Amino acid sequence: MKITKASGQAEEFSAKKLTNSLTSIGVSQDVTKQALQLVKDNLSSDTDTHKVHNIVSQYLSQHSHPLQRLNYNLKRAIFKLGPTGYPFEHFMAKILREFGYQAKVGAILNGKCVAHEIDIVAKKDNQVFYIECKFHNRPGLKTDIQTALYTQARFEDVSGAANSPNLDHHSWLMTNTKTTTDANSYAKCQNMKLTSWSYPKKESLFHLVVGSKLHPITAINSLLPDQVETLLKQNIITLKDLSHQLKNNRLAYLLSKEEIKKIKEEITAIYS
Q1: 118 - beta bridge partners?
Q2: Which CATH number, 3.40.50.10800, 3.60.10.10, 3.40.1350.10, 3.40.50.300, labels domain 86-212?
Q3: Pairing state between β 168-175 and 127-134
Q4: Has this prediction a pTM greater than 0.85?
Q5: Domain locations in the chain?
Q6: For the segment 53-101, what is each residue's pLDDT rounded down to a tens digit?
């Protein structure tokens, strides 16, 4: 049976792909088999990946640990950080800091030719990374060769003006979706570090978020859209940020006591 992807293309439903997706987040074999069977029972000529995702997500909400369901919905949660790319840049900087990097968002650096605003400048040991964060706020879009080209051009102009002979300089492209084959090939040829939703295999965006346990606030159900918008504007982007604010009683202006209690319970259940 064919299903429609977010890009509009049709492909055969892959039981293996769904099974791998669920086992990668720790879902048990029994629950995986049951979820897979439920999807198969509901396949029809008009089924798309959105419907499949909803079926599985709903099943996981009743039969798996909250953290597993959260990780299954992680890609969608990151889309909700939009529509602008600004929260995504800060989100990635927070993750980098969790892995021992120094990270500055929105740095203005002089190049050999012109000044550039770099999304993130990250430093670790004797290495400096000039990072372009390419954010998409809906599925079905890929980061293409054009983004890789201007990321490298900006890096070459800025690194060419850097006066730091004891440091190694690198370009780095980060995106919350997949990248095209050409973008991957170009990045490899230029020694550009590339992080997309599922690449590299064990250092992908998915693995970075899960490994750091810095899930976005958009991953929980207890916040209303206008509350999320207010929090993001204040750089409260991760559940860790949110928990810290709640612990210090700094969100009484935005949330009722009942809402605060509900959010705390949901976060506790996720990380228990």
Answers
A1: 107
A2: 3.40.1350.10
A3: parallel
A4: yes
A5: 2-66, 86-212, 215-271
A6: 999 999 999 999 999 999 999 999 999 999 999 999 999 999 999 999 9
